[in-house]
Write a structure and sequence with these properties.
binds zinc ion, globular, 407 residues, 2 domains, Urease, subunit C, domain 1, alpha/beta, 38% helix, TIM Barrel
Length: 407
């Protein structure tokens, strides 16, 4: 057993001082230091920096590790120009990202306080890195394929990747399923994959309504996607409408990523079916997709998280940076409450959506925690200052073990 007695705890919902925490793999007790020392006389007392803050480790629900080689290769500013640049550079980027490149992305996330992540895997090339990562991982095997004649081959490849990830035997590693998007996956494939997810109780995710091009293609078979589908895939019409796509997920709550160009009806369905939205502000800005309406999500009681997306549409896999960008992107939303909601989105809410027993400093939760050094005693706007100041992370605990200390 270990005991830690920080100056401040951010749970993340409650901010408190004067409490210590007794933990091993999980948090056993929270209370006055002397009480815990009496209960656990053999416990090791953890050293602390001045103005110490203990908070939950951050959870990044959406990253594409296989594209971690990108720095300046891809075209930013619009969704289709970016997509064409991905297609053109895909082989170089994917082959250029060795296991070292993926491991280094995983390590960079850890340094930024990310103790769990959801990895969307297109090819399975990131499986080994994810399987051996120090973090908790939900490994989303991605299914893609809009053409019926390719369906069997693509589904077979998806199943073999899913089987490989299910063969990983590591506590904290979980297999999941990603459906790429409504425009890129045939409904028959979606049904088959979701049946597997239901049978095996796997967490699911999908991209949904990321670009205006997607909206126009799904609604009218028009817009910037039209030449793309006509030329590349010889398709004249979308394989799903937005609503048909959402209906396929009824009864299986899913993490829906981006959700920028939605209407009220779709937001109602997202709420009705218990889906959770993942907001990736940097990616949305770089790909010219606009800004999600967080207030509309909240008006419809739709749960939302904040994620980094992959390095194919970001410059850093850092949730503190991502939350800061969100804070400035949503300039009409009240500032301090948004900071608090962002912090909850990458801790307790992300854990709930991914089915992980972490994301909160509470008895019974896994001891996935960050120890930070603040400049001074925090005031009631601590969540806001956490996003603005990038305070140094002095210790990171996953399952109660220190995984990285200051170099
Ligand atoms: Zn994505």
């Amino acid at each position: 057993m270990k005991i830690i007695n920080p100056d401040t705890i951010l749970s993340p919902v409650h901010q408190s001082s004067g409490s210590a925490i007794a933990f091993d793999k999980t948090i056993h007790a929270i209370g006055p230091l002397q009480e815990l020392l009496d209960t656990y006389p053999d416990a090791e007392l953890i050293d602390l920096p001045r103005n110490s803050l203990l908070m939950p480790g951050l959870i990044n629900p959406h990253v594409h590790l296989e594209f971690s080689a990108n720095r300046t290769e891809l075209t930013y500013g619009g969704f289709l120009p970016w997509l064409y640049s991905v297609i053109e550079q895909r082989d170089d980027l994917v082959n250029g990202c060795s296991i070292d490149c993926i491991n280094s992305a995983v390590k960079d996330m850890l340094k930024c306080g990310i103790t769990a992540f959801g990895a969307v895997s297109s090819y399975g090339l990131d499986l080994e890195a994810a399987a051996t990562a120090p973090q908790k991982v939900v490994f989303f095997n991605e299914l893609i394929g809009s053409q019926a004649q390719m369906a069997d081959a693509l589904f077979g490849d998806f199943i073999s990747r899913l089987n490989a990830s299910e063969a990983v035997d590591r506590e904290g590693f979980h297999s999941g399923i990603a459906i790429h998007s409504p425009y890129s996956v045939h409904p028959i494939l979606i049904k088959k994959a979701l049946q597997i997810a239901k049978d095996k109780n796997l967490v699911t995710t999908a991209h949904f309504m990321e670009s205006l091009a997607e909206r126009e293609w799904l609604d009218k078979n028009e817009g910037d996607f039209k030449p793309f589908f006509n030329d590349f895939l010889k398709q004249n019409s979308a394989v799903n409408s937005a609503e048909e796509f959402l209906e396929l997920f009824r009864g299986h709550s899913t993490l829906m990523t981006h959700v920028i160009h939605t209407n009220d009806k779709e937001l109602e369905i997202l709420h009705r079916d218990g889906h959770t939205v993942i907001h990736c502000p940097v990616s949305n800005r770089l790909l010219g997709n606009g800004a999600i309406d967080l207030d509309a999500l909240e008006k419809h009681s739709v749960k939302w998280l904040c994620g980094t997306d992959g390095l194919s549409s970001n410059y850093k896999l850092d949730l503190f940076e991502e939350m800061k960008i969100a804070l400035f992107m949503h300039s009409e939303t009240a500032l301090a409450p948004l900071a608090s909601r962002l912090l909850e989105s990458v801790t307790i809410n992300a854990a709930n959506a991914l089915g992980l027993n972490c994301g909160e400093i509470a008895v019974g939760k896994d001891a996935d925690m960050l120890l930070l050094e603040l400049d001074s005693e925090p005031n009631e706007q601590l969540p806001l200052h956490l996003l603005l100041q990038h305070y140094p992370i002095k210790k990171i605990f996953i399952d109660g073990k220190v995984v990285k200390t200051e170099e």
